[in-house]
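Inputs:
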Amino acid sequence: MLLDKILEKYPQQEDSLLEILLAFQDAKINHFISEDEVRQIASYLHISEAKVCSVLSFYTFFRTENKGKHVIQVCGGVPCHVESDFNVAKTLEKELGIKVNETTENQQFTLEYTSCIGLCDEAPAMRIDDKVYTKLTPNKIKAILAEYRVYM
Amino acid sequence: MKETKIISRRFDRINPVSLDDYLKTEGYTGLTKALKMERISIIEEVEASYLRGRGGAGFPTHIKMMGLAKETNLPKYIICNADEGEPGNFKDKALLEKDPFAVIEGMTIMAYATGATHGFIYIRGEYQEAMSIMHECLKKAREEGYLGKGIRNTKFDFDIQIRSGAGSYVCGEEFALIESIEGKPGRTRVKPPFPTEKGVFDKPTVINNVETFANLPVIINVGGKEYAKMGTPTSTGTKLLSLSGNVKKPGVYEIEFGVSIRDVIFDLGGGVKNDRKIKMVQLGGACGPVIPEYMLDMMIDYERFEEFESKTGSGAIIVIDDRFDLFDILLKTVHFFEHESCGKCVPCREGHTQLELLIRKFNKKEATTKDLDSLESLARVMHQTSLCGLGQTSPTSIIASLRFFRDEYIDRIDHPSNL
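Outputs:
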């Protein structure tokens, strides 16, 4: 199993927890961590399930429920806000037919806000999965989404 | 006014992951020199340079180093804080991606001077590219004997591991970061004891900003006294700035301390886009003050920033032109902190919820005189009583705006829309 393979790469100590969760969530299809997996990780590290859950709920990167195949994160920082002539989130909402924090019906896209991603000098910016897109315009957003719909 | 390129001198001029390129541009000459020096002399050079922390708080680096050097509880740790989550800051990202070996060399010098053997670079999860660059560079440094056992054929052992953040702003706070490295939620600890005494895994630890480490090879090379000639007497050296917002040429710039904010915006940044008027400038990021146009002649140094009782010294400058409303900006800022508060202490956890409610009232022109008083006292209480830097500095933009943009607050009281 995928989780077993990842677990054996890490020492059985508490400070491996974040690293394990990040690596596993990244590798797993649908990118979220289930209750069974919480149990397995807790027993591997000899810590309580509550400890695993406290980490899962504290950090915004971790997900405990299914999200879209691609997660689109719009930067909500002030530099991106003041450098946009249009509303990035609203444009995406319109294009995808969903609101922020929702997932499209075909499970392809989830839309959410992120805090500053350090691309303030190329604002406005967004992230799709691990890839960043900068100097956005409404047309650029349409083109990016079209690419994801066709190829990814 | 021009840039003073010292720690950004290699930016875009070398292949950042090439150790050869780094060595050809005086790379590792600082460490080579340091390894021949007495450990205490290294700390004395840093003291003579009067290097202060570049993450925001501006704590003198040599004091931390001396603190760690004195500790006898082994092993000792060095942590590089690359959790650059402050909105409007991206200069650490530039260093990690454009001159990563300088950061590694700086960490190694500090480890040698203080007797530390283990290092961590805690990089925020959003910086995937910086992380893969750093992984590659650490591997190369290890292969060529610049990290690991017996560095450069001496008896000095030191190695560095990368730890990734997972989308939490508060983990940039030193104890929250330490908790996070230990695999826990990033909630701060009560100080003292300070990290130099009891840090990660309860062992002596020094934690510094990325840029602080990148300064060390320079200081060892030119000497502390020579370094201190740059900048102002109390804010020595250079500073990387993250210039963003409504300017023609946003980006990372390096200046000597003592330059004015106006010169940075107009000489380096090319002025405001479409030649609009500046409404306000936010310094340091979301946790920094907003200042009006007439204050732009303010010098960039730690003393001026300290006047705002904030950790403004990270070097972010966000220019906001006259199309924007003060309360829209403040609301975005407060909402951000409300989300990022770790929830451990009451002033920060409850304070941000209340701050947001109050700012929302001003935004909707529904505020009363009493709201103005409440806002003022709440901001002060949070600043004075929060456990860590987050709650202590987050009300800064509000405190500063109450001082410099008071008229706008009054306007929102005098003309309520619901009358």
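Remarks. The longest strand of chain B covers residues 238-245. Chain B touches chain A through 49 residues (CB under 8 Å).
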